[in-house]
Amino acid sequence: MCSSWVVFTFCCLGQLCAGKSLKPQIAASWLAANNPTHTTVTLQKPFCMFDSSLHPNKSYAVYLYAMEESASAISSLVINSSKPLDSTFQQTRGGQLGPYKAALFNVPNCASPPRLADVGDINKLSDVLKQYLFRVGDDGNCLYDPNFLGICNPPLAPDTTYRFKYLLLDTTEGIVKDQTLWSDAIKTRRVKLPLKIDTWPGRRSGDMIVITSILSVLMFLLLAGFLASVSSVWKAKTALKITKKKKKSKKKKIYKNKSMGLSDPKLFQ
Fold it and tell me: Which PANTHER family match (predicted)?
């Protein structure tokens, strides 16, 4: 087992707490936002779960199995005479008829956890999370690729409850050495139809309300500026018309006085 400070550190990070219950755990929300989604579930990898089953000079791998919760009434076995089941997503109808193999990866190294400095480095955070988290349902192409030979991890069904299990395989002998319990029930999100999406402001998030308010104020200011510019142009045109009328009237008066023999109209006012 890893040292106590390693366990403490990663329990604080939400990585190793799964080992206490020996079953797959959903990743903490601050490590995987919007988890689960409509078609994916992000799990913590089995860190330090299988340490007591590991032996030197042996090679190991971890299998991840998934199934719909309703399938547990049919079969939840993933071992056949110490051999792991090779059932696929297609054969089990996406986990409706029993567990299917969703992933295979190396046993996480409990003795060399990531450095805390790497966790805080935004440039390294993605690689660190990939090393310690696994996203079920992340491959949208394997079902339709005739040349795909690996383990297919296609999208999960929306609004469906799943359970997951990790299995430790001795790849040297090809037999199962250990396994976790089935995870707690984890349900993917429901897809909302466009007609059912609630647009009532009272149910919007605080951020949406703030953004809407700002846009409303900007629209008001834009409209006010437009009206002010129109008003200014209208006033300028009106003033120009009045000036032209005055000049025209003055010219007519001068012409009339001259025709009557008055050289200086001001003397006869």
Answer: UROPLAKIN III, UROPLAKIN-3A
The full set of domain ranges for the chain reads 4-193, 203-268
> For residue 70, which of 94, 102, 86, 38 has the smallest C-alpha distance?
94
Instruction: Tell me the fold of 4-193.
Output: Immunoglobulin-like (2.60.40)
What's the rounded mean pLDDT across residues 16-34? 75
pLDDT digits (tens, 9 = 90+) for 213-247: 788 877 878 887 778 787 777 777 777 777 777 66
